[in-house]
Amino acid sequence: MGDVADIEHVGGERSFRRRLMELGLVPGTRVELKAVAPLGDPLELLVRGASLSIRRGDAALVRVRPGVKLTAPALDPAGRRHLPIAPVRGAP
Amino acid sequence: MTVGESASLVERAAPERADEAPVVVLVGNPNVGKTSVYNQLTGERAHIGNYPGITVEQRSGPLELAGRGSVTIVDLPGAYSLSARSAEEQIALDALLGRAGLPRPALCVVVVDAGQLSRNLYLVLQLVELELPIVVALNMLDEVATNPPNPAALARFLGVPVVATDGRRGAGIDELKRAMAEELDKPPRAHVRVNYPDALVADAERVVSALPAAWRSTPARDRALALWALASIEPGDELREIPDELRARCESVRREAEPRDLDRELIAARYACIDGALEALYPRLERHPPKRASSERVDRLLLHPVFGFAIFLGSMLVLFQALFSWSDPAIKLIERLVTWLSTALVGLLPPGLLRDLLVEGVLGGVGNVIVFLPQILLLSLMIGLLEDSGYMARVAFLMDRVLRTLGLHGRAFVPMLSGFACAVPAIMATRTMERQRDRLLTMLVIPLMTCSARLPVYTLIIATLFPPSRMFGFVPLQGLLMVSMYVFAIVTTLVVALVLGRTAVKGRRVPLVLELPPYRLPSLRLTLRNMVERALVFLKEAGTVILACTIALWALLAFPRTATPVGPEPHGASVAAVHATSADERLASPSVHPTAPEPARSEGRIEQSYGGRLGKAIEPVFAPLGFDWKIDVGIIGAFAAREVFISTLGLVYGVGDADQQDLPLREKLRHETLGGKPRYTPLVGLSLLVFFALSCQCMSTLAVVRRETHSWRWPAFLFTYMTSLAYLASLLVYQGGRFLGFG
Q1: Interface predicted TM-score (ipTM) of this complex, two decimals
Q2: Quick one: which of B13, B275, B315, B682 is 20 to 30 A from B479 by CA?
């Protein structure tokens, strides 16, 4: 929670990409993961001063710098939440 | 629709509008307080209509501008951008460009949330590029008091007047009116310019030559339209009135530009322009103003995995309780009033057709309509408060995970929950969803919820046809059946939502983007006003349909008339029973439901009526479900409202004023025989329960779906799918049960 990253690329279908970019998630924009809904989905992002909530599957299409993917926290064996922004293997 | 058609539409519309007031449109992102600015501008004289052919509501109202006479303010649906994806954004686009038969606006008032300036300015830039005359209302400045953007600096950046407003308290509205009067019909004078990459500009120029002649004007506006077309037109979009040539040109330009991403170039250039200007707008250098700190603290509690859910469940319990029980005294009062009026009318008028029509048809119908008002008012009050405070968005956030699996929107939760009280206010509450597809799907499954009008029917059937025995020695069978009916309804709703979401209302995949607006203190005045507006729309548009149906149903059971009634005994509305919706009342006290006219004779009379004959005519159709003509007549009568099934059966059996506690009716039902054996077995009861759970026996539901979708197509679909489902399920239960040796 509270992790900050810069958007590098928005993937997915064209209409989806365009909608997210129009809402301000253009490459270079700073996003902060504010919260995860109690049931694990959706996520709450802070973008340009606005709280936007998008679903986990959609968030996975947003790649953030450097070479990290914006994913939701998973529970580790100890039951604690991971850092939500985990490096993507093989990414540049 | 082709371009030719639309052109003729505009031509036809033009002469009518020549002497009408100039149109000022109010435009902005969702959740920026646009509606409160609109209410402040128009005062109490709003008119709610609909855009032709779609479910998007249109609000407009007159405004007197000093020195400029009267203008018409049109409140456009909220839009994040003009590359129209939703029906709402398409309307906003058409209204701004004066297309699709809508008048060209003389001025655009853009309402902008001061707390989310950069995202809001994206839409402003699009409007500026299209050379529309603009006044910016910089709203909600009070929420960013620590680092407020400077209106004068914003005006310098954009080159258009910027007025600081506070839509909730009304501050700045007079200044806004002055600025509007000044800018009306002036040539656009915004001067902000976005620096697009050269390659994108070249692409746009290639599209310009494919623009239809009617769209062309200045080179800058042409280019803006070309950019709009490049970003919006794609195979499978739902944009109307796009000429084929333009479509083809956009496609080829895009293809040749690969691997460049034109959308990204365009959107990034606009945001670069905004980001470049932002620093000059704020007193302190914070690129993006922080989210309101107090909201964050509240969220930490309300979105907490434990406390958040507890508060959520608590508030939903209050909402449901209010709908289910608190509306009760008002409903009872309305029923008493209707009964009193019908008694009075019976005393005043001579017996005869006119009296029956007035009392049973008209008065009963009016009762059928106004009895919904307490719940509609209560639910729209509570939804208004939930929306305005920002909590509704959190409900959606909390519940999205659950509803998503059904293909529903998180915001569908409150309307679906309300469906357990009554489908009519619940369907009206679907308005809380922005996307047309979500709204439609929710509307189509709400009537499957166990609404409170089904309870008396269930009570009668269960208490009459099932023994009060216990299963395994301790589980009461009757209670278990009642609970099963709720579980059955929920499971069916989930399955139907899944199926319909993939078939009948399949929509384009639009990513769910929920905005979590900051918490705000709701304005009671605006909420109350909205509540009254909703109620009036219901009365006017759904009420007339309900009234007409009630009279038609009355006629069905009253004609042909045999003997004129004798004696001054009070008539009640027989079919037109007042639709009481409180379960408590029905389970506890005798119903105020209509008395049957001349009980002794009505058995024969009903049988002779058209309704009775219809019941007999359809007997073969329903026989495989285990129903006889008497039940069929009850089902026909129940179309007025489900619980009317009971009073209609009462009429059929001549037991007069029947309710589900009525012992004579129960005895008669139990003693009905066929070939020496009881006619109504528990299996028939089960089949009937399933039928009532699934069928759409409620004209008010259909009337309100018609009102909300503005077509007969969806209510017809709703009725067909629910009734077919009910028929098949009951058939399966009855025939399956007989096959297994029951009944």
Answers
A1: 0.78
A2: B315
